[in-house]
């Protein structure tokens, strides 16, 4: 079975508790459960992790080199700031799919640029929390080649 790491960045643990008009009503636990279920349907083993700390996310990406075939990641606010996360992803040889729940291009200008997009093999933007499922499906597609 191919293994996929679903990584979420800062404040994603607040989903469903604040700003539902932007991010919807689903919680991180809902998203992670759905990712595991969709992964099972796709024949993937899915592991989900979330951190509010840039260094912890970087360490997990480094460790993923040994264990995972793909990373589906919502780097959240670090998308727009973190060269460190981008560099770690560049050292990861598997597929990288970037997910954003909201359409970052319809929002403030500082959200329009993502360092992670400079590495991503695919990007899902503005599809709500359904974007994680789309990201997993694309990861499965890339891994089947
Ligand atoms: O649209 C996305 O998925 C984002 O990655 C979400 C990030 C935001 O910084 C990015 O620009 C776009 C924010 C994560 C969730 O933040 C919350 C803050 C308070 C309450 C609920 C969620």
Report what the structure shows.
Helix content is 39%, strand content 20%. It is of the alpha/beta class and 145 residues long. The protein has a single domain, classed as Rossmann fold (3-Layer(aba) Sandwich). It has a 5-stranded parallel sheet with strand order 2-1-3-4-5, with helices on both faces. It is globular and about 35 Å long. The two termini are 14 Å apart. The mean pLDDT is 97. Bound molecules: ligand CA2.
Report a brief summary of the structure.
This protein has 145 residues and is α/β, with parallel strands linked by helices. It is 39% helix and 20% strand. The chain has a single domain (2-143), classed as Rossmann fold.
Helix-residue proportion? 25-40%
**What does the radius of gyration come to?**
14 Å
Sheet with the most strands?
Answer: 5 strands, parallel
Secondary-structure element series = EHHEHEHEEH
Query: Could you tell me the mean pLDDT?
Result: 97
Question: Could you tell me the number of beta strands?
Answer: 5
State the assembly state of the protein chains: single chain
**Which structural class do the helices and strands define?**
alpha/beta
Count of helical stretches: 5
Supply the CATH class: Alpha Beta
State the fourth-level CATH superfamily. Dehydroquinase, class II
Spatial separation of the terminal alpha carbons = 14 Å
Label the overall shape: globular
